[in-house]
Amino acid sequence: MVFTIVFLTLSVLTGAGAWLYLRWDAAKQAGEAGGAPALPAKDKAKSKKVKESVKDIWEVEDVRRGVLVLSGGRYRLVCRVSSADFWLLSDAEQNEVEDAAAAALLQLTFPVQFLVTSQAVDTRAAVEELREKAGDLPGALQELAFARAEYLAAMTQEKAASARQAYLVIPYDTVKGFEHAYGELQARLANLADALAGAKVRVEPLSSEAVVDLLSHLLNRGRIWRPSEAVKRGVMSLYTVSERSAVNA
Known about the structure:
This protein folds into two domains: 55-121 and 162-235, Alpha-Beta Plaits, CATH 3.30.70; 122-160, no CATH class. 56% of the residues lie in helices and 18% in strands. It has ten helices and six strands. It has helices spanning 2-34, 41-51, 54-58, 91-106, 124-134, 139-158, 178-197, 208-219, 227-232, 243-248; strands at 60-64, 67-70, 74-83, 113-120, 162-173, 201-205. Strands 1, 2, 3, 4, 5 and 6 form a six-stranded antiparallel sheet that branches. The longest helix has 33 residues, at 2-34. It is extended, with a radius of gyration of 30 Å.
């Protein structure tokens, strides 16, 4: 009997709560209808996307001497990682590499992050070098050099080839400023590079230009344009003089 009374009481309370909620929701919708029209969901998403920047997404405040300066006293050193082809090593060499890599990771006293990304192969430097040196070659070799340059240029233009590149991110958090963080990051890099050298792994810190190019690649997949190239061509200068104008002068 007691359970029946409790059940009936709860049912009444539930029904009354649902009725009150429906009335409140209807009044809210009526108030919104009398005000300014709300933006469609698509327009809201577009407006939010326009306002977002690298600082909003990754909290990047600056890139100094190859170090990512994040908000809240956080600093990150990004390094390019390369190694010998593991499968081309002998069994004994593979065992040595595995043992050295395990020892390097076991001695870590700080967290690290590995980033692997696929990047379109940029052959523009090779194309330029081939075209410059082709003029000094004899007839048949000259034709082959120009043909090779055209092939590589088409490969870059069509994005027909890509390569995987691994990166290692070394962190350090402090409130003592950039110089202190930079020294600690360099010390961590030296210790880690020495430990990984036994595993035939090379760790090379990126320059500020390379860090900016990497961020641009991660935010603009499939594009081969690099911010560092724009800087070299004077995009940050107050004025520039084109090569054509200099020649005509």
